[in-house]
Amino acid sequence: MAALGAITGPDLWLPILGGALLPDIPIFIFYAWTKGVEKIPDRTIWQEAYYRPFWQAAVAVGHSIPLAGAIAITGQIIGEPVLIWLGISAILHSLEDLPVHNHDAHRHFFPISNYRFISPFSYWDPRHYGRWVSLAEWGLVLIASAVLWSNMSSWAGRLVLILINSSYGFAIFYSRNLWRNCTESNCSQPQSSESNSSVEVGKSKASSKV
Ligand SMILES: [Zn+2]
Predict the structure, then answer these.
(1) How far apart are CA 149 and CA 162, in angstroms?
(2) Ligand 1: distance of its center to the CA of 209 in Å?
(3) How far is the CA of 100 from the centre of ligand 1 (A)?
(4) In the predicted model, what is the mean pLDDT of the chain?
(5) What is the model's pTM?
(6) Which DSSP category does 189 fall into?
(7) Quick check: 208 pLDDT over 50?
(8) Domain assignment of residue 151, given as a range
């Protein structure tokens, strides 16, 4: 957001923010549904329900670089900057997700390919440096927010920055609490033995669980 905002100026911060959030919207809906409607415990939500084929497909659509690129190209063709920056911002979100997802990696090239890049680092999993990665990520968000804050004249925008930083802090607290004492035996993922393979890991995980 900070980088794109510096390029476009303040007028397009809304589509840039929208593009930054767009890839994770299926995950927000997934959590609201499984927690609020199905009333599944949190660990089961992230270890099992998350790998159901329907939700994996929804997450893949949200995190698809080709689809976000198509939005940006459509914007370029019809001369609509909102679509251009929405698409570019969504692509940046996916590029930032790539190095911080291990066994829960997304299919960023869906529907062209089901390839998943299995990073040795995770933004949450303590078995893959999650405690440090989450802090580093939050630190970067704080720095970017400080830059944006000084260039931002609208209080609505500043409120959004406060909300983003607060939600990062809450997410770190939530995941540390949820995955404390996490070991291979008590929080292994479905078919975690495949996690070194970088191709179609989650797809096979998903189909085996449901
Ligand atoms: Zn994401």
Answers:
(1) 10
(2) 22
(3) 10
(4) 83
(5) 0.78
(6) P
(7) no
(8) 2-188
